[in-house]
Amino acid sequence: MLKAFTEPFRHPRPKIDLGKSKDSGSGRKPKAKAKNWSGTLSRIWAYLARRKGKLALVLLMVMFSSGLALLGPYLLGVGVDRFLNDIKDPGGLVDSGWMYFLIGLAVVYVLQALTTWLHNIWMIGIAQETVYRMRMDLFTHLHRLPIPFYGKRQQGEIMSRLTNDIENVSSTLNSSAIQIFSSVLTLIGTLTVMLWLSPLLTLLTFLVVPLMMLGMRWITRRTGPLFKERQRNLGDLNGYIEETLSGQRIIKAFSQEERVIREFDERNLRIRLSGFWAQSISGFI
């Protein structure tokens, strides 16, 4: 039983660059990193801006959903306090308007479910339309590139950018973008309510925040490079598969099956290890 739990973690973890190894006279240059977040966000916004009206409705529904998510637990707390006071007088449970209170509480949760469903379904539509236009623009751009561009790159790697990388953008727009906005609103609202109810308990609760920030910093510094490594390995594997399938006659003619299988296994193992550790470490969040 214990072996079943510990065996997966015996996989060797891929070596990743955590940014500590700078150019210290060894002659090796530090790896270049793309940090043009503003440019990337502006280009994505250029696609999203085509549906500004619907996007504004999504953000409005997220605000309503976050507010209702805070209102529900607050009303439950008020209800518990009223119940503890009215339980001493059984007649008070009938005469104090409990039916209206329960109906109001049900309406809050129904509205929260409705607003959540609306902003999810609308955002999925916006994300899929955005990704559709990205694929069309990228496919059109590929036909404008010169021939030497294709001679320096594997066809499978280019295919991976059209499929896997764009799919990552799709999943980010579908869920992560809305979750971040909703989480920020919920955090601000929760902190406001907590300070209003009890500043002392709020202070005690937030004593763990520095520890959480240290833990998140440890996690994100490792998961970021691992996820990037997984995407690189995935592109490499797709490129190798495409080349192998297109050259299958040559492989058969020169009896290179064992070498091809061995090289495929090495690439497959790399993506397995990077994917395992990326998902495992990110799971600590």
What can you see in these coordinates?
With 285 residues, the chain is an all-alpha fold. The protein folds into 2 domains: 46-197, Up-down Bundle (ABC transporter transmembrane region fold); 207-285. Helices cover 80% and strands 0% of the residues. The chain has 11 helices and no strands. The protein has helices at residues 2-6, 37-48, 52-86, 90-95, 98-142, 147-151, 155-197, 199-205, 209-246, 248-253, 257-282. Helix 3 (52-86) packs antiparallel against helix 5 (98-142) and helix 7 packs antiparallel against helix 8 (199-205). The radius of gyration is 27 Å and the shape is elongated. The two termini are 26 Å apart. The relative contact order is 0.10. Mean pLDDT is 81; it is low at 21-32.
Secondary-structure-based class equals mainly alpha
Large-scale geometry: elongated
CATH superfamily of the largest domain: ABC transporter type 1, transmembrane domain
CATH fold title of the largest domain: ABC transporter transmembrane region fold
* Percent strand: under 5%
User: What percentage of residues falls in helices of 4 or more residues?
Assistant: over 70%
Query: How many domains, in number, for the residues?
Result: 2
- The quaternary organization reads as single chain
Radius of gyration: 27 Å
Quote the distance from N terminus to C terminus: 26 Å
- Which ranges are low-confidence, i.e. pLDDT below 50, for 5 or more consecutive residues? 21-32
| Number of helical elements | 11
Mean pLDDT: 81
- CATH architectural designation of the largest domain: Up-down Bundle
Order of helices and strands: HHHHHHHHHHH
Largest sheet: none
Please give the CATH class of the largest domain. Mainly Alpha
Strand tally is: 0
